[in-house]
């Protein structure tokens, strides 16, 4: 059967990418607790996902498992301001290299029975806050969920919500979608508050 309940409580935590490799796994962030990503300078190596693109892994990752949840009245923080948001767009392409995509805060691929909510707050993702792909039985926002990232504040281009071409010097958080749902079936989104610098739901 596998799985467990992992409770974050007390003082804050710093973490690199975490992978949920067992079904029936539940992450709970207690009220008053913040789980933050380590900053960009110490992030784990990127991986290649097609012929032209590389991606840095998300803070929380799950693929091909079932009965997974993120909940609690605490906060997950992607620490996007530690150098990620200064990229010109959602990806950076050094001369002669592959595209490098900034990491999402959460990444779920091929998951069955996924739940995110219970009063949780997601904030300051380097890229999208929630990425769900080819998953079934997804419930987002049950019990409440809030997603926050700063909008462009000075230096941004008028009418360009994503900040294309504006970073630097914009001080916002480009491409910090609230949630992206790519394929899958049986998805319900409710009771979610989103304040960010791009799409709320896509």
Fold and architecture overview:
The chain contains no helices and 21 strands. The chain is an all-beta fold. It has a six-stranded parallel beta sheet with strand order 1-4-9-14-17-20, with no helix packed on it. Strands 2-5-10-15-18-21 form a six-stranded parallel beta sheet, with no helix packed on it. A five-stranded parallel beta sheet has the order 3-8-13-16-19, with no helix packed on it.
Low confidence ranges: 154-170
The coarse silhouette is globular
Q: Can you count the beta strands?
A: 21
Q: H/E element string?
A: EEEEEEEEEEEEEEEEEEEEE
**N- and C-termini, Cα separation:** 34 Å
Biggest sheet overview = 6 strands, parallel
The gyration radius over C-alpha positions equals 16 Å
Number of helices: 0
Approximate helicity band:
under 10%
Explain briefly what this protein structure is.
Helix content is 0%, strand content 41%. The chain is mainly beta.
Task: Reconstruct the topology from this structure.
Layout: E1 4-8, E2 13-15, E3 18-20, E4 25-29, E5 34-37, E6 47-48, E7 53-55, E8 60-63, E9 66-71, E10 75-77, E11 91-92, E12 99-101, E13 106-109, E14 112-116, E15 120-123, E16 130-133, E17 136-140, E18 145-148, E19 179-182, E20 185-189, E21 192-195
Defining traits:
202 residues; six-stranded parallel β-sheet; mainly beta; 41% strand; single chain; 21 strands
